[in-house]
Design goal:
With 135 residues, the protein is α+β, with helices and mostly antiparallel strands. It has three helices and six strands, in the order αββββββαα. The strands form two sheets. A three-stranded antiparallel sheet has the order 1-6-3. β4 and β5 form a beta hairpin. The two termini are 18 Å apart. The model has no long low-confidence stretch (mean pLDDT 92).
Amino acid sequence: MQEPLTDVIYETAVGTRNSMNLGDDPSIAVRLSVPPWPSAEPDQSSLGMPIEGLSSDSLKHVYLTDAMRVGSSYQYSASDGVVAKVTAHGKRIREARARAYRTVDRITLPDKQFRSDIGDRASDSIDLLKSWKWL
């Protein structure tokens, strides 16, 4: 997005927006979670588990969801199991993918789980969508 997300959400909610200003570069998002998600409610004994490896630069691309800030650190808040979404963009899907997984690798979270195949089939899908003239 080439504009603040808060503006998009507010203007959509009040009915004054019907489009978004999006860039042309591909983007991906990788969801970080911890067991027992998605099969069961979080284990409350995990409450307060440290989330490490976050910097001011990485937080531009990491959207913490099931986390809380305690002082200057971040901890797991054990409400749903999805701790964060890591995003990245690049000129090519391969570049966006590499950037996202580089950030994922830097985040230390006990028992973190995530899909490792995001973006693998995207080039084939994009070619198919182009052949259908959807892109």
